[in-house]
Amino acid sequence: QIMKEYLKSGQLDLALKELEKTKEKDDSFRLMGNDITVFIDLYLEQNDPAGALDIVQKHTDKCYHDQYLRIIAAFAKQGDTQKTLDMLENLPVEKLLNIRIQNFMPLLSVYENAGDLENLKTVLNSILATKAPGDSRGLLSSLISFHLDR
């Protein structure tokens, strides 16, 4: 409960200390639901996707697909396309909830908005290789928009 109060007030450092204390008392403790989202949000507000990824990897059993993709998109915004591709290639499908192909759209938008056609195509191909459920035709709209806007 103390950790949630720290998270609500944006005190990431204190929330992390409380999380570590809780883990010491109960090694099986895992973050769930909204707590994961708040941690991710705070890290991403600080432009620290590596910190958000660390939280997901160390302190969750499951997280929502869109939460995980927000972390990947943050790496893309930082210009780290190799990390983006590595994360897509090693997508922890067994850990992700509600995997849908349309959840990838914000990630593609990073490259579309940056005018980076080469990486847009590379990331799109990597996304298609994940075989996420859903109609992948919608993802092609990023390529179409790119060409129409140019």
From the alpha carbons, calculate the radius of gyration and give it in angstroms.
17 Å
Characterize the overall form.
elongated
Biggest β-sheet description:
2 strands, parallel
Oligomer: single chain
Task: Please give a structural write-up.
It is built from 9 helices and 2 strands. The chain is an all-alpha fold. It has a two-stranded parallel ribbon. Helix 5 runs antiparallel to helix 6, helix 6 runs parallel beside helix 8 (117-129) and helix 8 (117-129) runs antiparallel to helix 9. It is elongated, with a radius of gyration of 17 Å. The mean pLDDT is 90.
Detail the topology: elements first, then pairings.
Blueprint: H1 2-8, H2 12-25, H3 33-45, H4 49-59, E1 63-64, H5 65-77, H6 81-89, E2 96-97, H7 105-114, H8 117-129, H9 140-149
Parallel strand pairs: 1-2
Helix pairs in contact: 1-2, 3-4, 3-5, 4-5, 5-6, 5-7, 6-8, 7-8, 7-9, 8-9
